[in-house]
Amino acid sequence: MKFLLVFDFDHTIIDENSDTWIVRCAPERKLPNGLRNSYQPGHWTEYMGRVFVYLGDNGIKEDEMKRTMTTIPFTAGMVDLLGFIGENKELFDCIIVSDSNTVFIDWILKAADFHKVFDEVFTNPAAFSSTGYLTVQHFHAHHCAKCPKNLCKRKVLKEFLDKQLERGVSYTQIVYIGDGGNDLCPVMFLKKNDIAMPRQGYTLDKKISQLAQSLSPVQCSVLVWSSAIDIMSYLKLLIKE
To answer: Which family does the similarity line name (predicted)?
Structure first.
């Protein structure tokens, strides 16, 4: 009996968007209008690339970025939840699938000593160049019309499950914890025995509700959460069964 926990990162594990939080490093804590208005839907990664160039041009170094990023608050109850998962790792495999980047997630998890809770992190690869600029790339290419062009979370989840099956690992249940519009695609992939846990009042919650109203509900069960303590309560019931 083993369960797979799939977490989004921004507004799920942390209570903010890591990509917009980094703007606190910018001069006067804001971006020039031209840069702010250069975002095109579905091309967030390219936009963040331009933000990182702007920060680099303004002499913002790695250590300052790191200091800023590690002040992001965790979502209510999340520290308790991750502690609980860490104590029960023999029952839970735990992955992150996020449109953030490897550098930000790594900094934040390591600073709070939660990196050991997660078996794998799937997110956009980032690194500092020889000139000290942060660079970010697309996670992968895909053919899903519903998702941003750099990341289809359903594809990530499916490939992870296939790889685990090859290793002889299958899961009693998948628990998907997220908040955003790009979490709907993987939630649609979940089966009847699985459970989606959308954050209350956020886009994923609204989209799942809309599907139910239009009589094309998701296959899996749905349990809304507002504090990660709600998620922990569910997981405690799960391992008692």
So the answer is: Belongs to the HAD-like hydrolase superfamily. PHOSPHO family.
Q: Is 19 annotated as a binding residue?
A: yes
Catalytic residues: 8, 10
Q: Does the annotation flag 99 for ligand binding?
A: yes
CATH of the domain at 110: 3.40.50.1000
pLDDT digit string, tens, across residues 111-134:
999 999 999 999 999 999 999 999
How many domains does the chain divide into?
1
C-alpha neighbours within 13 Å on the C-beta side of residue 128: 13
- Residues of the domain holding 102: 2-15+74-125+147-239
The pair phi, psi for residue 233, each rounded to 5°, is -60, -45
Tell me the residue type at 9. Answer: F
Q: For residue 102, tell me if it sits in a domain.
A: yes
Q: Say how far apart CA 59 and CA 72 lie, in whole Å.
A: 22
pTM for this entry: 0.95
For residue 189, is it within any domain? Answer: yes
> What is the distance between the alpha carbons of residues 48 and 83, in angstroms, rounded to a whole number?
31
